[in-house]
């Protein structure tokens, strides 16, 4: 029966406990261990059963317990300290104020992501992308950045995982109760729900707005599960990554276009827009529409101004991971933007195509994001290289090394992933600021002052706690599916708190090779049982396969079957329903973190960073972040970064390498103890992992990089181009149109090299070029000499570009450029010349995607002496 009226009933707290409400609704408690202790102290069992949700707990705890605790002076003192700590935190975030010299009132950065992994009680994330986004917000808050975040609020979120008796992954979709989560429903001045509307074919879809307060950062989430939307439209915000291609495009329209409209409804005017993956790239269409309809800009001007302030982070190292939509779908759902822009079908679809002449090509969200962004980055150095290769065709004529996709390596939020007892240890020996300290800060040297026995005993405590929690979670999972008594007994006795424990937890995609350690069953059996040495090894494994990923589910089942068939269920444990809470237990309680993807398909990986912060050495293929870490001092590399054409051969080689490292290095180092039962060599590696990895692979460093290299510059450019009624933006747009039209009239006519005999290292010589610029002027271009080593194929693959100086015009009205240079290395060296556009408002000479190289087949090249025709 439908109610005739609904009410949002909030917890009734004694006045003395009102501070608990404030604490519960700001997610700062998630990375403040003392606040977590405060809520656990209220009711430890309820804290666990509520999935660590203080709002739900306050709404269900008995009034008698609240009245009791309101008289408990010890609890009240702890609560008051927590409230004061939150107040101090919100007031004292000052990194931004100290480092943003050109800060202006109202500056704001909008961060768009399809998912946010913030805490266990908000299951609106699927894995690493979401947790990375959540950590980004936490560190933005720690640093005091004026950042707001935009996403979708999913009624069912991502699935809860359980295994049937055969070990096959099953999915449940628990309903999220928004009114018992740390969410605020945004309202207008009259107290009504604040709503926005987005056009879909034949109708409008409405969404209300919820806010999650993440320290100082607000995260705004759109929710379509309301009337008057029809059932299909209500389900747009039903499941994360659920449904078919039509549902995906519905979701991405709501995120990108709806997100922009939501910011406007909230009265926010961001100065920079950050797309975390390409899901939100439709934002550019809505921003361009607004610039045209509200500010009177042309399409080209609107595109230029929108691009100025947009940033794009790609997390995808393979083309198959990019959202591609059929052209007819894009025109069906977004054709009204084409009409507003005054474009033809092909022109509109070209915004999302690499080859704009291929009229059958799908529409790529990543390409749309790249074409409408001023700053583009991958999430590790290796991933940036892969991305430059993937998307290099968008910059025809540029060497791959110069494709303007840079790297900002991911990090993790330290206070969110380091175990409570370990944080206390770091606070005591490193000081309270270790979690945000920069690489090179003096406090990191104090890691080596931590007594070995204290660090080791703390880690042993974490391992023991992991064993207890895994047993409990496994037992409850088996009870839910009606397991046999024998299976329950094995679950309650699984793992040994004193045995070397290897952790593996990540999405069960096939390229991550979760079963590589089972490649040689006889050999891994010997390693696990410690045959001949008594030095046993155990594995804790967790992760979800996408509901439609049958090969991924097969990997899970094969692990379960192996453990049963071999009688190893106490030594290899697959823990179902991997989530943030289990992740934190595993990265703290395991001894080694294993990662063995097919290089280079792991864009970054962050779980290994979390493990390192807890002192765990990594055992990993040189992919993602691990490729740029010190993988000798802080762990062990599997292979040396080789590339393979045959995946079966690759599995043979890398599985064998994995077994060798375990047998010859990892196991002996772990079990070699002194008279005090301390593995000194192992502890030394733990300290190196903390010392080298914690400050570098930290979202404090990462978000500072985004601010210094992206947010500040994008905001400054946006402010510059929008000044004087967008005068500079209009000027730049007109210049780009002119230079594009005239570019094909530009050509090299003559290049003179003063000495082409064999050269010696550091021997100077002069290069002079005569260029026809057509209707362009020397102010419109920059001419560069490109020099480098000639590879075996006769090409310069990685060269150095040096600007040439304009010398004036010669007697044939050609523009003359010259440069004196020398080679600093011997061997076969080469040079070429190129011309790039130049304008004072241009962010990069690569933005117009125009480059002209000197063609040796069509340019006259003189040798010996400078040609009199271009002599000065």
Concise structural overview:
This protein is of the alpha/beta class and 872 residues long.
Word description of this protein:
With 872 residues, this protein is an alpha/beta fold. It has 27 helices and 29 strands. Strand 15, helix 21 (521-529) and strand 16 form a beta-alpha-beta unit. Helix 10 (245-265) crosses helix 11, helix 19 (452-480) packs antiparallel against helix 20 and helix 23 crosses helix 24. The chain is globular, with a radius of gyration of 30 Å.
Outline, from the CA principal axes? globular
Give the % helix: 25-40%
User: Ranges with pLDDT <50 over ≥5 residues?
Assistant: 864-872
Total beta strands: 29
Gyration radius, in Å: 30 Å
Mind summarizing the main beta sheet? Answer: 10 strands, mixed
Q: What is the mean pLDDT?
A: 94
Structural class: alpha/beta
Strand content: 15-25%
Distance between the termini: 92 Å
Number of helices: 27
Key descriptive features of the protein:
872 residues; alpha/beta; 10-stranded mixed sheet; 27 helices; 39% helix; globular
SSE order and pairing:
Blueprint: H1 18-24, H2 33-42, H3 44-49, H4 54-60, H5 63-69, H6 73-91, H7 95-99, E1 109-113, H8 128-143, E2 147-152, E3 160-163, E4 169-172, E5 184-185, E6 195-200, E7 203-214, E8 217-223, H9 231-234, H10 245-265, E9 272-276, H11 283-295, H12 299-308, E10 310-313, E11 324-325, H13 327-341, H14 345-349, E12 363-364, H15 365-371, E13 375-378, H16 381-391, E14 406-407, H17 414-417, H18 420-430, H19 452-480, H20 485-492, E15 500-505, H21 521-529, E16 537-542, H22 550-565, E17 572-575, H23 580-589, E18 592-595, H24 607-613, E19 618-621, E20 635-638, H25 647-671, H26 680-693, H27 699-742, E21 747-753, E22 765-772, E23 781-789, E24 800-803, E25 805-809, E26 815-821, E27 829-837, E28 852-853, E29 860-862
Parallel strand pairs: 1-2, 1-9, 2-8, 9-10, 10-13, 13-14, 15-16, 15-18, 16-17, 18-19, 19-20, 21-29
Antiparallel strand pairs: 3-4, 5-7, 6-7, 7-8, 11-12, 21-22, 22-26, 23-24, 23-27, 25-26, 27-28
